[in-house]
């Protein structure tokens, strides 16, 4: 009894080793902790884990985001397309200004050639009529004025060509950006009018196109962002297109004003030249009439001098008497009885012979002077006649030049060879 103890002590005592027991208890405690951790994880999962419908929700949200982005891109594409249309219209307008400038330049070149042609026509005048006159000064001034206007139009045409190249480059840039932006719009309709978008495009999209549960915060298309629908390249292309269109409008206004000013000024210059030629023709006609009157007076004076010469020759013949001595009458002889008897006394010399010789010499001098005057009158008449012929020729040439200018004033003719 003292060795084994009582029955109650045997029952309450541990038979197994304590290490073995502790190992089992540790396993039990560890299992209890795992159960509590699992329960806590399940509780957290009930509140935080996604629902089974997460796939459908993500698909819907992704579709909404893609749709919203595509609609923002569509608004940007509409802005780009409107800018492209405006650029095309501006190109059409400046092309019309270019045609107007080219037409005015062609007219100026025709007028330069017409002025040169007028000078060449007037250069064929007789040498007597080639002195520098007011019409030549007006033609020279017109030529200088036309060449200056030609330079102005050529410079303006070069500016228009440069502006057209810049507009074409801007249009190409817009087309390139528009093509790149519309790559995400294959499944969307972009036929929206230009007035359907505003500056606050994100607000418009949120209120108009998206359901409430699909509204997300996206960057506004009014602020350039490389990762948004409105990229810096879009903003730069739009700004460049606006700037080039403004420059084109200013250039078109300058072209219209330049062409209008040149046309008005040239009409005034052309009228001055034509009036100058008309006055020169009128002066030539007046001088021609005066020459005709002078020629008639000269011929009348020649006739009078010839009649006077004939009368003087007849008087000299009467004074000289007959050519043969046998034809003299007794009363005409110097040795007739009355004179011979009277000359018997000294100092009674008869001056009849001396006076006859003196009278004959005087009539001869009158004949010589009259003949000289007739020759001078005939020479003057020939000069007047030659001057009259030159005046007629100059009148025909100036009239032809003026008629040619008036016929070609409408510019409905071609230059032919390049001028």
Tell me what you see in this structure:
α3 packs parallel to α6, α3 packs antiparallel against α8 and α6 runs antiparallel to α8. The longest helix has 89 residues. The protein is rod-shaped. The N and C termini lie far apart (152 Å). With 419 residues, it is mostly helical. Helices cover 75% and strands 0% of the residues. It has eight helices and no strands. About 7% of the residues have low confidence.
Q: Give, in order, the helices and strands.
A: HHHHHHHH
Instruction: State the helical fraction.
Output: over 70%
Major beta sheet, specifics?
none
Identify the overall geometry: rod-shaped
Rg, rounded, reads 62 Å
Q: What count of helical segments does DSSP give? A: 8
Q: What is the CA–CA distance across the termini?
A: 152 Å
Q: What percent of residues are in strands?
A: under 5%
Strand tally: 0
Mean pLDDT: 82
Class based on secondary structure composition and strand pairing: mainly alpha
Low-confidence stretches: 193-220
Blueprint of the fold:
Blueprint: H1 7-12, H2 18-48, H3 54-123, H4 134-181, H5 201-208, H6 232-320, H7 337-342, H8 352-407
Helix pairs in contact: 3-4, 3-5, 3-6, 3-8, 4-6, 6-8
Task: Give a concise summary.
The protein has 419 residues and is mainly α. The protein is 75% helix and 0% strand.
